[in-house]
Amino acid sequence: SKEIEHAATVVSDDLNIPYNIGLRTGVTSPKERQKQKINTPKSLISTPETLHLMMSQKGYSDVFKSLEFVVVDEWHELLGSKRGVQIELALSRLKKINPSLKIWGISATIGNMQEAANILLGTSEQATIIKADIEKKITVKTILPKVIENFPWAGHLGLKLLPEVIKIIKEKQSTLVFTNTRSQSEIWYRQIIEDAPELSGLIALHHGSLSDKLRTWVEDALHDGRLKAVVCTSSLDLGVDFRSVDTVIQVGSAKGIARFLQRAGRSGHSPGAESVIYFVPTHSLEIMEGAALRHAIKEGIVEQRIPYVRSFDMLVQYMVTLAISEGFDADKLYEEIITTHCFKSVTKEEWQWCLSFITKGGETLHGYDEFHKVVIEDGLYKVVSRKIAMRHKLSMGSIVSDSMLNVKMQRGKKLGVIEEWFIARMQPGDVFWFTGRNLEFVRIKDMDVHVKPSKAKNGIVPSFMGGRMSFSSQLSEAIRDILFDYKTKPHKHAELIALEPLLDLQNRISFLPGKDELLIEQLKSKEGYHLLCYPFEGRFVHEGMAAILAYRIGKSMDITFSIAMNDYGFELLSDQPVDVAKGISEGWFSPENLYEDAMKSINATEMARRKFRDIASIAGLVFTGFPGKPVRSKHLQANAQLFFDVFKDYEEYNLLLQQAHEEVYTFQLEIARMRKAFDRIDSQFIVVKQPEHATPFSFPILVDSLREKFTNEDLKIRIEKMIAESEE
User: What are phi and psi of 56, to 5 degrees?
Assistant: First the structure.
């Protein structure tokens, strides 16, 4: 938002146009908001959450009557989230206030561009797509190890290639080093400073847990060309134009083609300029992703964004928002919301359920006054309680995260925020690494974590929830294409030439699958009998496939499995061998009865229970707390689970309960994508091999499963032994 405000102000000043540009976000001061109320800006830059807050104020319709244009930036990113639903609902109301309203969207290239445009405009409009006839040049370079045999077979940090990364940083004008998690960014920042102390003061750290003040300083310094490099996460993916940045480095898999392209575009951010991105693999198999990404970019392959539909938590929140301000007519509002893509399938009966939910808590909660939020006055649905209105405004939005604690120096300087669950494990005197420095934990007071500088050389790095990602469907397919072509076509990619010793080893001690083949490996170790399968379909799909396969095997024999998986395949570990040939003939990999077996094998109810916490918070069933005094995560979860169990037992048709299950099926289990994977496997020839030792394919999965059972030292010895056995 600040970047757009700055750019618009520069243009306005250069053209000498007296154009009043306003910025309104969650951190805008009350004084500035009041100033905007008296003197409405010609152009207002805002967020979906703030727009809905404005709609909760009396007289908002008069303010928006003169609105002529709405421009939605980064629509491709909003589309695949509930923030996109907020935009859909807000636009449906703004178009009603001013039917001649012009709507523009700005989007990166995605696989379902026409659908994205239609969703933005609504069901009754025909979208026009304007696309520049300019091909953006993107150069992808994979940093390859000098000796592939010495490169790790497993891992996720990539520090083995740190010297090459430091060399690039020194050679280039300004570099963004992207990592996938905040903890990984802290580790990389620390290691760069330790290995190249001359870069101190020229390199910075940027991620979502740092304070606004610190992040703003980094962005300004980067914009002014004062920094050689910034180690960052997705916090710098969007909305930033840094002319000085000429190079981007991606550490580890980006997990998606669109995300990789988005990050590549942070360099060469001017017309005609070339974007240069270096890919840093963190283990051997990841090397081929560089070739897969280059192939996908050349072919114009990019992911679709799956829009949310029937998000009833957002709908009931929106209804209460309008009831707080000017009230709403139920019939008229229904006609508005069904013009949106998200709610076009809502029936009159479901609409009545929503009205009942906000007025009397629905069928189950009607005995509790706190859920009687909205009343009917003169035919309009309104909120008359100031307490209900205040609590609703404090809880508005679509983003629900774990409780965050402020990290402060003892003298009071705020460094950023950290998740409650991490700090809860710490004792006074413990040392952790945060904002690029070692800090000693002193105490927790209210919602503040007091720390002081530590001279200790080592400290634990905070890990953050939600850091686990999976290959997208398109990236999975691109990697399969590259791997399968290795057997049949002359390999021109530098990545495959570098991987040749490893892939040849895989083929020699086991098998290298082709396009119409699926590889299954069976091996025995001290841990038991391992069954490993390699669909190359992404972690989330493999998690579901492993559970379904374990369930189907369990129907024919008394057996228990432990499951492990990564983006390349999955493992079933048991105390007895499995007859795979017999299982294939019995339909273990058949797409038939997939949905039913998924529901029986995967604890979908428990997954929906966890998902329901977010839905309950958005819908206003649970109160998340006051500013500075949020409700603790474990209490939020307990309260939400209570509602989940009540609805499950007494109101199975509750729309919020149904929504929780639908979101699990669509976004977590990816049932549709899993079905495609089973359909593909059903037409493939299944090759079963029994290697004596771990193979290059199995090694990363086996190491991940061993990580939970061994200390770091024991694990290191075990890994070295496994590699030695495989290379014999």
Answer: -90, 0
Q: List Cβ neighbours of 407 (8 Å cut-off, separation of 6 or more).
A: 414, 415, 416, 417, 418, 434, 435, 439, 448, 449, 451
Task: Kindly report the number of other CB atoms within 10 A of residue 389's CB atom.
Answer: 18
Q: Measuring CA to CA, which residue among 287, 346, 286 is closest to residue 315?
A: 346
**Torsion angle of the four alpha carbons 392, 393, 396, 401, in this order, in degrees rounded to the nearest 10:** -90
Nearest alpha-carbon partner for 411 in 385, 383, 442: 442
Q: How many alpha carbons fall within 13 Å on the CB side of residue 713? A: 0
Q: Tally the C-alpha atoms within 13 A of residue 601's C-alpha that lie toward its C-beta.
A: 23
Read off the tokens for 588.
């273990």
Distance CA(686)–CA(708), nearest Å, equals 31
CA distance 191 to 179: 14
Extract the tokens encoding 428: 């006074």
- Nearest CA-CA partner of 247 in 175, 139, 178, 143: 175
Q: Name the pTM for this structure.
A: 0.85
| CA distances for 304 relative to 36, 113, 214, 307, 470, angstroms | 38, 8, 34, 9, 15
The candidate with the shortest Cα–Cα distance to 175, out of 137, 143, 211, 202, is 202
Answer yes or no: are the C-beta atoms of 183 and 462 closer than 8 Å: yes
Closest of 550, 590, 543 to residue 567, by C-alpha: 543
Q: Give me the helices (H) in 98-211, please.
A: 113-121, 162-171, 182-195
Q: Report the DSSP pairing between strands 448-453 and 629-630.
A: unpaired
Q: What is residue 554's three-state secondary structure? A: helix
**Tally of CA atoms within 13 A in the half-sphere of 435 that contains its CB:** 23
CA gap 423, 416 in Å, rounded: 13
Supply 408's token pair: 């402060």
Query: What is the per-residue pLDDT for 637?
Result: 66
- SS3 category, 419: strand
CA 187 from centroid of its chain's CA atoms = 21
DSSP state at residue 1: -
Query: Domain boundaries in the chain?
Result: 134-304+465-509, 405-453, 510-601+672-727
Give residue 194's Cα distance to chain centre: 30
Residues of the chain with pLDDT under 50: 465-466, 710-713, 715
Quote the tokens at residue 196: 């190249």
CATH fold for the domain made of 134-304+465-509: Rossmann fold (3.40.50)
* E runs forming strands in 273-390: 275-280, 375-377, 380-382
Among 470, 476, 469, 468, CA closest to 676: 476
Q: Using CA of residue 391, residue 394, residue 397, residue 398, what is the dihedral sign?
A: negative
556: tokens are 């024919």
CB burial string 683-710: b at 16+ within 10 A, e below: ebebebeebebbbbbbbbbbbbbbeeee
* CA 304 – CA 119 distance, rounded (Å): 13
The distance of Cα 46 from the centroid of its chain, to the nearest Å, equals: 22
* Cα 161 to Cα 251: distance, rounded to the nearest angstrom: 10
CA geometry: angle 80, 85, 87, nearest 5 deg: 110
Query: What span, in angstroms and rounded, lies between the C-alpha atoms of 342 and 307?
Result: 8
**Cβ atoms within 10 Å, residue 513:** 24
Q: What is the C-alpha to C-alpha distance for residues 88 and 79, in angstroms, rounded to an integer?
A: 9
Phi and psi at residue 567, to the nearest 5°: -75, -15
Structure tokens at 75: 């629509």
Q: For residue 281, what pLDDT is reported? A: 95
Please give the span between the terminal C-alpha atoms of the chain, in angstroms, as a whole number.
58
Q: Which region, left, alpha or beta, applies to residue 259 given φ > 0 means left and ψ of -120 to 50 means alpha?
A: alpha
Both structure tokens of 702: 């086996």
SS3 state of residue 438: strand
CA-based R_g, the chain, Å = 27
Please give the pLDDT value at position 466: 46
